[in-house]
Amino acid sequence: TQKLERRLQIAAAMIRISEALANNEQCDCWTRILDSISQLGTMGMSDDEQILDTQGQHGIVVYSPTFRHSQFDELFNKVDSIRGLEKYLFTRVGRNRLPRIRGYEGIERSPPANLPSSFYQPSYLEAMKKGVVNVVAISKEKTTIPRCVLRQSLENLDSDSSQKLTDTFGLQPIGISWSAAQCLVLAVRCR
């Protein structure tokens, strides 16, 4: 549930930033991401297992649910990376993040009911039709997985937009102006 909560918080924060900057495209994209994360819920999040390799290095093996479409792996990697890149907008708590390695096998669990068919691996949908895995209700809604690319969106942040961010979030970067922080701030753009 920590993973779900963290991703929901990141998406909600990015919606607020997009709204403050009156960037409707970014706001729509992050809203779609937030909706997708909410629909998947805890059952749609991957499981992690901490490992210690032969050289004594710690890492995390990530096992995705077998039902979840693989495009979510890419999307969640990008959502998770926002926190580290947005150092002035997100407060880091806890120890440093360990390196993640994608596990070959997936984690077997039943999906939540009423997910759009696009959220499933095609092979899982086929297995449901054949009765190999538990059959759950599938939403008739035509929803696509948000496909996003990271891009620098605040390269030319004007003083008006800078003031909006300061007013909205109470941000007063110490020893760094917004113009210097622009290269650190990334947003997500839907294709």
TL;DR?
This protein is α/β, with parallel strands linked by helices and about 190 residues long. The protein has helices at about 1-20, 25-40, 70-85, 120-130, 160-170, 180; strands at about 45-50, 60-65, 100, 115, 140, 150, 185-190.
Outline the structure in words.
There is one protein chain. 39% of the residues lie in helices and 15% in strands. It has 191 residues and is α/β, with parallel strands linked by helices. A three-stranded mixed sheet has the order 1-2-3, with no helix packed on it. It has a two-stranded parallel ribbon with strand order 4-5. A two-stranded antiparallel ribbon has the order 6-7. The two termini are 29 Å apart.
